[in-house]
Amino acid sequence: MEFESKVAAFATGLFLLGSYIMLFDLWDYSIFMVAVSSALLLLVAFRDHKIERNDLAAIGVALAALIFFYFYLVNSTFAPLVIVLVVALAAINAKIETFVPALVGVLTIQFLDVSFLMKSMNAIFLNFSSLLRLRYDINDMGYLVLYHSKTHLPIVMDEVKISLPFYLALMVAGIVLIAMMEIDRKSLLRSLIAAVLVPFLFLVLTLQKLLYVPAISAFIPDNPAALALPLASVLLMSIVIPSGTIRRLQKSGTASMWISIPLLAAFFILVLVYYVPTTSSSDPLVIIDETNSEWEPTWTDYLQTYKQDPVSGTNNYFGLVNFLTTIYDIEWIINRTDKNPAASPGDYVLTDGISLELLENISRGRPSVLILKCVTSPYNESEVDAIMNFTAQGNGLILIGEHTDIYGMCTHLNPFSEQLGYTFLPTGVQDIYTESRGSVSQKGEFPPEMARYLVGDLLWETGCSFTRLDGADPSFEIITRPSYFSHYRNDTSAFFLTREFTEGIKLNSQFARHLAMAGTNYGDGKVMMFTDSTQFNNGIIAFGDHATLFVAMIEYVSSVERYAKTVLPWLILAAAAALLIINRRNALGALVVLSILFLVAYNLAYPLAYNYTDFPALKGEPKAVILEANNDYLEEYLSGMYDLEKLMDKYFQENLTALIFANPPREWINLSSRVEDLHEAITVI
Q1: How far is the C-alpha of 188 from the C-alpha of 235, rounded, in Å?
Q2: Which pLDDT value is given to residue 372?
Q3: End-to-end alpha-carbon separation of the chain, Å?
Q4: What is the DSSP letter of 332?
Q5: What pLDDT sits at residue 624?
Q6: Is residue 12 classed as helix, strand or coil in its secondary structure?
Q7: How many CB atoms lie within 10 A of CB 436?
Q8: Cβ proximity of 313 and 648 under 8 Å
C-alpha cells in the first residue's frame, strides 16, 4: 500500500490529539478522534492480512479486555493507553507494528514531565527576542512572562498554553514511525528533520496565536478555534512522512503455550499481589497541634462560635473532629487555655513549645499520627527537629496547607516538607471549570490502600500547590488536570471568594498539572502532604468524600505492612523478561499482552483492597449521620440546588456530622447513627 505510512501518521496524530484532550476531562471531541483513528490504524494493520482463527481469538480477547475496562477503569486518564493496547491486541497476528508510534506517543503524554522543556524556552527568547519582536522577562517565581504585542497584557507561559505535551508526543511518534519505515538513508534523514520541524513550527504558531489572541479559548482544547492548529499539525505531519510501508519488527510464530501461559499467570499474580494492599490499622493516637495555628481551628465549640459569628462557625474543624473522636483517640497540643477542645472524648497538653520528649510522653509508645494544619506562625528549629525525629521513629505526620498563603499557612510548612523533597508554594490553585462543574480526582488516582476508604471521587474546590525537589522519593502523588491554573503570590484569593475569573487572572497564571497531594516515607514513619485545609471545615466536610479522605490519610500514614514486598518488583521483572526471551520472535506482541495484564491487575487491586485492609472500628456512640444521595449529587450541589452550610448546621445542632454518600458502603453505615435521604433532609431545613 503506497500510502500506508501516511494513513498511519494521520491516524496516530489524531489519536494523540484525542488523548491529550482527555487529560482535560473533555470527551466531546476526544472520543470521536480516538474512535476514528483506532479504526484507521486497524485498517492499516489488516490491509494485507487474511483474518484466520488466531485473529478471531485475538479479537475476542481484545473485546473481553475492552468490556472489562469499560466497566472497571479506576482512572480514566489511562483510557488512551488502554485503548491503544486493546486495539493493538486485536491486531497481534497482523501488523501490530502499526500501533507502536501511537503507543510511544501516548506514553509520552501520560508519563513524561515536559515542564523541564519550558526552561529551554528562556534561552530561545533571550537570543531571538529582538528578531521575534517580543517583550519578555522572568518573574520572581522563575517563570517566563511574555507580553501581548498591543495590549501589553502579561501572559505567564507554560506547557499547557502552547500544547507542548501534544507537540512533543507528535514529534516522538513521527520519529518512531519514520524509523520503522522501509526507506533509504537519505530519505530517512530528510524525514526525521521534517518530523522535528513540523511540531516546532506549530509550537511557534501556537505561541504567536496566544500573543495575538490572549484568551482562554485560544489554548483550552474544547472549541474548534483551539483545535485548528493541532489538527493542521497532524495533517502536515502525515504529508511530510514519506510514502511507504511499515517494516515488520518481529517474525511470525509463537513459542510453546505450555511455557508462556504459566509465565503470564505468574506475572499477573505477582503484579496483583504487589498492588493489593495488605496493611493492618495500628489504631493510632491522633495528635493535633494547635500551638502554631490560629486558622480553621479544631478545638472550637461549634454552637457558641456560630451564635457569635456564623462565618467563623462554618470555617472550623468541629464537624470533622467530632466525628473522628468516634473512631480514634485524639489528643491536642495547645498553647492557651481558651483552646481547650470542645470535641469529646479527648485530652490536651498545654505547652510553650514542642519537644521530642513532649511528643513521646503524649504517645507513651503508642503508634501516633501528628497533624500540622493551617500553620500561621513558624516552628523554630528545635521544634522542627523534634517533629521530624518523632516521625522517623515510626509515627505518621500529616501536613495540611491552605488555598492561599495568607499568614504563611503554606510556606511555614517548608521546614518540614523540604526535608521530604517538596516545597509548598505561595499559590492559589483553581480549576477554570469550577464555576460550572467543579473538578474531581478519581479514586483510582489514589493508592488502593487509601481508595479503600473513599466512597466516591474527590471534589476539589481549590488549594495551594507544591513542587517536587531533586532527590524526592514519593510513595504516590496526586496531580491535577491541565485545566488547573495557579495564581502566584496570592494572599487574599479573591477569585476563590468571588468566583470571578478575569482574563487577566487566567492569562497571568500558570496552567499546568499541579501537585495537590503526596505521600512519602521518612525514617520508619510515613508523611502525607495536602494542599487545602478548607476541604475539612464545617461548611463542606459532608461533601465530595472530604471526611473519608481524612480517615484515609490517617490510616495511610499509620498503617502497618503485614509483610515486605521489596522482592516482588524483581520477581515481576524476571517473569516479564523470561516471557520476552521465550517469545523473542514476537516480543512486541508479548509486551502488549504483559501491559494489558499489568493494567488488569492494577485495576483489580482496588476492589480487592476492601478485603485485605482493616477498617477503623467504632468507639462509643456514633456522631455521624449518612445522607444517602443519588449519583448526580455532585452536579446538583455545584448547580446550587441546596445550601450545604444550612444542612450541616441542622445536624450540628444535634451534635451530629452529616456525611453525604451515594450508595453508602456497609463500613461507613456502621460508623453512623442512622441513614437518611438527602433530598428529604433538604426539604426540612
Answers
A1: 19
A2: 97
A3: 70
A4: E
A5: 92
A6: helix
A7: 9
A8: no
- Contacts of 581-586 with CB under 8 Å at 24 or more apart are 582/255, 582/256, 582/259, 582/260, 582/263, 583/254, 583/255, 583/260, 585/250, 585/251, 585/252, 585/253, 585/254, 585/255, 586/92, 586/250, 586/251, 586/252, 586/253, 586/254
Tell me, what amino acid is at 567?
V
Strands 525-530 and 515-522 come out as antiparallel
Whether the Cβ atoms of residue 285 and residue 362 lie closer than 8 Å to each other: yes
Write down the pLDDT at residue 40: 95
**Residues in CB range of 197: below 8 A, 6 or more apart:** none
Of the candidates 581, 249, 558, the one whose C-alpha atom is nearest the C-alpha of residue 397 is 558
User: Kindly report the CA angle at 403 between 401 and 406, in degrees rounded to 5?
Assistant: 80
Instruction: Check if the beta carbon of residue 78 is closer than 8 Å to that of residue 117.
Output: no
- One-letter identity of residue 501: F
279-561 — its CATH code? 3.40.50.880
Strands 347-350 and 422-431: unpaired
Q: Classify residue 336 by its DSSP letter.
A: S
Cell of 470: 531533586
CA dist list (Å): 453 to 85, 370, 446: 30, 20, 11
User: What are the structural domain ranges in the chain?
Assistant: 4-115+163-249, 279-561, 624-683
Query: Which residues in the chain show pLDDT less than 70?
Result: 1-2, 122-134, 138-143, 148-151, 251-256, 433-438, 489-501, 685
The DSSP secondary structure of 350-372, one letter per residue, reads E-SS--HHHHHHHHTTS-EEEEE
**Strands 510-511 and 439-441: what pairing?**
unpaired
- Percent helix, strand, coil in the chain, to 5, is 50, 15, 35
pTM for this prediction = 0.90
**Cβ–Cβ < 8 Å for 433, 439:** yes
Q: What is the pLDDT of residue 641?
A: 75
* Strand stretches in 99-201, DSSP E: 136-138, 144-147, 154-156
Contact assessment for residue 513 and residue 542, using Cβ atoms and an 8 Å cutoff: no
pLDDT in tens, 143-166: 677 776 666 777 888 888 899 999
What gap in Å lies between CA 531 and CA 410, rounded to an integer?
A: 8
Dmax over CA atoms of the chain, in Å, equals 83
- Measured between alpha carbons, how far is 576 from 578 in angstroms, rounded to an integer? 5
Contacts of residues 674-681 at CB distance under 8 Å and 24 or more positions apart, as own/partner, are 674/625, 674/626, 675/625, 675/626, 675/627, 675/628, 676/625, 676/626, 676/627, 676/628, 677/627, 677/628, 678/627, 678/628, 678/629, 678/633, 679/629, 681/627, 681/647, 681/650
CA atoms within 13 A on the CB side of 446: 28
Using a 10 angstrom Cβ sphere, with 0-12 exposed, 13-18 middle and 19 or more buried, the burial of residue 256 is: exposed
- Report whether the peptide linkage leading into residue 415 is cis, meaning its omega lies within 30 degrees of zero: no
- Sign of the dihedral through C-alpha 660, 665, 669, 674: positive
Rounded CA separation 270/670 (Å): 34
